[in-house]
Amino acid sequence: VFVGNLSFFCTAEDLMELFQAHVPIRSASIVKTKNGLSSYYGFVYLENDDDASKVAEIFNGKKFMGRKM
Questions:
Q1: Phi–psi pair at 7, nearest 5 degrees
Q2: How far apart are CA 36 and CA 56, in angstroms?
Q3: Phi and psi for 47 in degrees, rounded to 5?
Q4: DSSP secondary structure string, 19-44?
């Protein structure tokens, strides 16, 4: 699942904690620039693809670390 408009300070671990409270996930990642800085987006890899619509409903527009996802 694509997760956009993340805080510069958000880590993959932060995403995992947030999403695991609602659905089982395999992993999460934050996309970084060549310089190693956050690109303000990432991906959460779900255990069950059917949960994608559930997390979209839960998190779309939700404020996290000061920014709306």
A1: -65, 150
A2: 27
A3: -65, -40
A4: HHTTS-EEEEEEEE-TTS-EEEEEEE
CB atoms within 10 A of CB 45: 13
The conformation of residue 36, written as its DSSP 8-state character, comes to: S
Neighbours of 63 (CB within 10 A): 8
Helix (H) or strand (E) holding 12: helix 12-20
Whether 36 shows a pLDDT value over 90: the answer reads no
pTM equals 0.88
| Contact between 7 and 39 (Cβ < 8 Å) | no
pLDDT of residue 32: 93
- Say if CB 28 and CB 12 are below 8 A apart: yes
